[in-house]
Design brief:
Layout (H helix, E strand, L loop, with lengths): L7 H9 L4 E6 L2 E8 L2 E8 L6 H10 L4 H9 L1
């Protein structure tokens, strides 16, 4: 499935819908965390206007999502 062109802020909003919380920010990078089965998942999202395809694919993988599920979250 084709990846959408999204900004860092759009990615953060989508991840927050599934329980991720912003824990810190350093410069233009935001760290989001979610506790899953007694393990903490951390995802770093750069606050760029447009994320490159590789960066977006990596964030989706780290969050434990599929591209389809991620696109659903964006549309909600």
């Amino acid at each position: 499935m084709k990846l959408p062109v999204v900004s860092g802020n759009e990615v953060i909003k989508a991840l927050m819908k599934i329980g991720y919380k912003q824990v810190r920010q350093k410069g233009s990078h935001v760290a989001l965390q979610k506790i899953v089965e007694n393990k903490t998942k951390t995802v770093i999202v750069p606050l760029h206007k447009e994320l490159t395809k590789g960066t977006l694919r990596s964030i989706i993988r780290q969050a434990g999502l599929t591209v389809e599920k991620f696109i659903e979250l964006l549309e909600k």
